[in-house]
Write a structure and sequence with these properties.
Helix content is about 20%, strand content about 45%. It has about 170 residues and is an alpha+beta fold.
Length: about 170
């Protein structure tokens, strides 16, 4: 068994055993989920201060009760076309682990759906799409009500350099 497969199995085990509950949200008519323990809060859209010389997916920073939080647009991070924000667009504040420790970042999503309790038997490993496609940020696929929700490993959506750059921007 490869180290990557063991890591993936452990990650799925962590989601199932420790968290079980996932916050689900939509982007471009697709459903995604993040383990509820990674979520700090959900807020409506608010003014975002842009930070020069950051990647396109980095929208900037927000002032959340006196704390500066970097914000990324998850659509842009995943290469999905940008859309105008609506009244359903929101920012999910999550906690990610970087080399310098734990960092809070905001992720812009189209709409928050619900909190689901996901059972282990409903989670399948991420299919391989070939060596050119990096799917390390996907914990697994949850089969729910005839559809599939992509379970994200929010710690791997950004790489170490990107997390470090966001820490500096904040």
């Amino acid at each position: 068994m490869s180290e990557n497969t063991e890591t993936m199995d452990q990650a799925i085990k962590t989601v199932v055993e420790k968290e079980g509950k996932c916050l689900t949200f939509t982007m471009a008519s697709e459903e995604y989920g993040i383990g509820i323990l990674k979520i700090k809060e959900i807020i409506g859209m608010m003014p975002i201060t842009t930070v020069p010389k950051t990647p396109e997916f980095v929208k900037g920073v927000i002032n959340l009760r006196g704390k500066v939080i970097p914000v990324i647009d998850l659509r842009l991070r995943f290469g999905i076309d940008a859309i105008d924000y609506t009244e359903r667009t929101c920012i999910i504040v999550v906690e990610v682990h970087g080399s310098a420790g734990t960092v809070q970042i905001g992720i812009v999503v189209d709409a928050v759906s619900e909190v689901l309790n996901i059972n282990g038997e409903d989670i399948e490993k991420t299919p391989t799409f070939g060596s050119k496609l990096n799917t390390d940020y996907i914990l697994g696929m949850a089969k729910i009500e005839g559809g599939v929700k992509l379970l994200l490993d929010i710690d791997k959506v950004l790489n170490e350099q990107e997390i470090a750059a966001l820490e500096k921007a904040a």
